[in-house]
Write a structure and sequence with these properties.
The protein is mostly beta strands and 149 residues long. The chain is built from 1 helix and 6 strands.
Length: 149
Amino acid sequence: MLNKVMIIGRLGADPELRYAATGMAVCRFNVATDEAYTDQSGQRQERTEWHRIVVFSKQAENCANYLFKGSLVYVEGALSTSKWTDQQGQTRYTTEIKAQRVQFLDRKGDRPAPSADDAYSRPQQTRRDDDDLGPAFPSEAGGMDDVPF
Protein backbone atom coordinates (compact mmCIF):
# COMPACT_ATOMS: atom_id res chain seq x y z
CA MET A 1 0.00 0.00 0.00
CA LEU A 2 1.14 3.54 -0.65
CA ASN A 3 0.23 6.79 1.11
CA LYS A 4 2.39 9.49 -0.45
CA VAL A 5 1.64 13.17 -1.07
CA MET A 6 3.83 15.69 -2.87
CA ILE A 7 2.74 19.31 -3.29
CA ILE A 8 4.31 22.63 -4.21
CA GLY A 9 2.50 25.73 -3.06
CA ARG A 10 2.53 28.91 -1.01
CA LEU A 11 1.77 29.39 2.69
CA GLY A 12 -1.50 31.20 3.39
CA ALA A 13 -0.31 32.48 6.78
CA ASP A 14 2.73 32.32 9.04
CA PRO A 15 3.35 28.86 10.55
CA GLU A 16 2.26 28.13 14.12
CA LEU A 17 4.78 26.41 16.38
CA ARG A 18 3.78 24.64 19.59
CA TYR A 19 5.39 22.10 21.84
CA ALA A 20 3.76 18.84 22.92
CA ALA A 21 3.86 17.77 26.58
CA THR A 22 6.82 15.57 25.65
CA GLY A 23 8.74 18.63 24.47
CA MET A 24 8.48 17.73 20.78
CA ALA A 25 8.05 20.70 18.44
CA VAL A 26 4.91 20.64 16.29
CA CYS A 27 4.47 23.16 13.48
CA ARG A 28 1.25 23.61 11.51
CA PHE A 29 0.59 25.69 8.41
CA ASN A 30 -1.66 25.77 5.35
CA VAL A 31 -0.40 25.58 1.78
CA ALA A 32 -2.35 26.67 -1.30
CA THR A 33 -1.94 24.92 -4.63
CA ASP A 34 -3.65 26.06 -7.78
CA GLU A 35 -5.00 24.48 -10.91
CA ALA A 36 -5.94 26.16 -14.16
CA TYR A 37 -8.03 24.56 -16.89
CA THR A 38 -10.34 25.42 -19.75
CA ASP A 39 -13.99 24.47 -19.26
CA GLN A 40 -16.37 23.14 -21.93
CA SER A 41 -17.34 26.65 -23.01
CA GLY A 42 -13.69 27.60 -23.60
CA GLN A 43 -13.41 29.82 -20.51
CA ARG A 44 -10.25 29.63 -18.44
CA GLN A 45 -11.01 28.52 -14.89
CA GLU A 46 -8.75 28.62 -11.84
CA ARG A 47 -9.17 26.68 -8.64
CA THR A 48 -7.20 26.87 -5.40
CA GLU A 49 -6.92 23.89 -3.07
CA TRP A 50 -5.83 24.35 0.57
CA HIS A 51 -3.77 21.71 2.38
CA ARG A 52 -3.19 21.45 6.14
CA ILE A 53 0.42 20.54 6.94
CA VAL A 54 1.89 19.29 10.22
CA VAL A 55 5.64 18.95 10.79
CA PHE A 56 7.48 17.57 13.83
CA SER A 57 10.77 17.94 15.75
CA LYS A 58 13.73 19.96 14.42
CA GLN A 59 12.14 20.32 10.99
CA ALA A 60 9.11 21.93 12.71
CA GLU A 61 11.36 24.52 14.35
CA ASN A 62 13.07 25.24 11.02
CA CYS A 63 9.69 25.78 9.35
CA ALA A 64 8.60 28.16 12.11
CA ASN A 65 11.86 30.11 11.89
CA TYR A 66 12.26 30.39 8.12
CA LEU A 67 8.79 30.16 6.55
CA PHE A 68 6.22 32.94 6.43
CA LYS A 69 3.01 33.85 4.64
CA GLY A 70 3.66 33.59 0.90
CA SER A 71 6.67 31.26 1.13
CA LEU A 72 6.95 28.75 -1.71
CA VAL A 73 7.49 25.21 -0.40
CA TYR A 74 7.70 21.61 -1.54
CA VAL A 75 6.03 19.26 0.96
CA GLU A 76 6.33 15.49 0.87
CA GLY A 77 4.47 13.30 3.33
CA ALA A 78 1.44 11.13 4.00
CA LEU A 79 -2.26 11.87 4.37
CA SER A 80 -3.68 11.43 7.85
CA THR A 81 -7.31 11.83 8.95
CA SER A 82 -8.23 12.46 12.58
CA LYS A 83 -11.69 12.09 14.12
CA TRP A 84 -12.76 14.36 17.01
CA THR A 85 -15.84 15.74 18.73
CA ASP A 86 -16.49 19.48 18.85
CA GLN A 87 -18.03 21.46 21.75
CA GLN A 88 -21.53 20.83 20.42
CA GLY A 89 -20.96 17.05 20.39
CA GLN A 90 -20.68 16.83 16.60
CA THR A 91 -18.20 14.36 15.13
CA ARG A 92 -15.64 16.16 12.97
CA TYR A 93 -12.83 14.99 10.73
CA THR A 94 -9.59 16.72 9.85
CA THR A 95 -7.34 15.55 7.03
CA GLU A 96 -3.78 16.82 6.96
CA ILE A 97 -0.44 16.02 5.44
CA LYS A 98 2.08 14.72 7.96
CA ALA A 99 5.21 16.09 6.37
CA GLN A 100 8.31 13.95 6.20
CA ARG A 101 10.16 16.53 4.11
CA VAL A 102 9.69 20.27 3.66
CA GLN A 103 11.94 22.03 1.18
CA PHE A 104 12.05 25.82 1.05
CA LEU A 105 11.90 26.92 -2.59
CA ASP A 106 12.25 30.70 -2.23
CA ARG A 107 15.66 32.23 -2.73
CA LYS A 108 17.41 33.24 0.47
CA GLY A 109 16.27 36.70 1.56
CA ASP A 110 13.01 36.64 -0.44
CA ARG A 111 10.84 37.85 2.41
CA PRO A 112 8.18 40.40 1.49
CA ALA A 113 8.09 43.67 3.38
CA PRO A 114 5.82 43.50 6.44
CA SER A 115 2.36 45.02 6.21
CA ALA A 116 0.94 47.38 8.81
CA ASP A 117 -1.11 44.58 10.41
CA ASP A 118 1.83 42.21 11.00
CA ALA A 119 1.78 41.54 14.73
CA TYR A 120 4.91 39.47 15.03
CA SER A 121 8.44 40.66 15.56
CA ARG A 122 10.63 37.95 14.07
CA PRO A 123 13.79 39.30 12.45
CA GLN A 124 13.03 39.77 8.80
CA GLN A 125 14.74 40.54 5.56
CA THR A 126 13.53 43.63 3.78
CA ARG A 127 13.08 43.64 0.05
CA ARG A 128 13.32 46.29 -2.59
CA ASP A 129 10.35 46.98 -4.86
CA ASP A 130 12.40 45.89 -7.87
CA ASP A 131 13.12 42.42 -6.38
CA ASP A 132 11.58 39.60 -8.42
CA LEU A 133 9.73 37.29 -6.03
CA GLY A 134 8.77 34.88 -8.77
CA PRO A 135 5.31 33.60 -9.65
CA ALA A 136 2.43 33.71 -7.16
CA PHE A 137 1.63 30.02 -7.72
CA PRO A 138 3.67 27.08 -9.01
CA SER A 139 1.58 26.75 -12.18
CA GLU A 140 2.74 30.22 -13.20
CA ALA A 141 6.37 29.12 -13.17
CA GLY A 142 7.61 28.11 -16.58
CA GLY A 143 11.00 26.49 -16.00
CA MET A 144 11.01 24.70 -12.68
CA ASP A 145 14.05 22.58 -13.47
CA ASP A 146 15.25 22.60 -9.86
CA VAL A 147 12.09 20.95 -8.47
CA PRO A 148 13.21 17.96 -6.38
CA PHE A 149 11.34 15.28 -8.33
